[in-house]
Amino acid sequence: MSKLLLNIEKHDIDILKMLNLKIKCSFLDKFMTYITYIGSVPFGVLFCLISLILTRFSTNLFGFKLTLAMLLSTFLSNTIKKSVNRIRPYIKLSNLNAIKIGVDNYSFPSGHTTSAFTMSVMLSLFFPKLSPLFIILSTLVGISRIYLGVHYPTDAAFGTFLGSLCSIIIFKLT
Predict the structure, then answer these.
(1) Which keywords does this chain's UniProt record carry (predicted)?
(2) pLDDT of 100 over the 80 cut
């Protein structure tokens, strides 16, 4: 088992370095800094509030389901993050180009990616024709977190899984 984990960690670092060091350019520095905010707490709260206001008289309950899914995914993400205590890559690896945007010390799972996928999967469930757009945007959020040096690829991958799962569960159960 430890050999498998070491192999995963090696690939995690290799992918991180490729996204963080090899494709680095001034355009991506700016673009990734902006796109990462789609998964931020202020954006998520604002999106939930707007969704609740716009759909308060609707029978489809989009705003309600989105807000429940965001609350669940945020709670689970923060609980897991505090349990795992995985140190962020820019703290552990000395040669990264890190653009630290209001982060704590722990990285697993990526909260931004979790939030972005919670929103995009819920949107996709309600508006399936637009799902490619939603999934591309949330995928860019996950990539931005790696590009900025604040997450490993497995942090973003688990955030993708967690956010997606929370949206599907809330969508089906409510």
Answers:
(1) Cell membrane, Hydrolase, Membrane, Transmembrane, Transmembrane helix
(2) no
Residue 45: which pLDDT band, with cuts at 50, 70 and 90?
very high
> Bridge partners of 78?
none
C-beta of residue 143 within 8 angstroms of C-beta of residue 23: no
At residue 107, the 3 state secondary structure works out as coil
Confidence of residue 22 (pLDDT cuts 50, 70, 90): confident
Structure tokens at 2: 């430890």
- Residues 135 and 58: their CA atoms lie apart, in Å, by 24
- pLDDT of amino acid 57: 66
Is there a contact between 64 and 57 (Cβ–Cβ < 8 Å)?
A: no
CB 15 within 8 A of CB 153: yes
Enzyme catalytic residues:
112, 151
The residue among 51, 61, 31 whose CA lies nearest residue 137 is: 31
Report the 10 Å Cβ neighbour count for 58: 11
Q: Output the DSSP codes for 54-101.
A: HTTT-SS-HHHHHHHHHHHHHHHHHHHHHHH-PBPHHHH-TT------
Average pLDDT over residues 19-43: 89
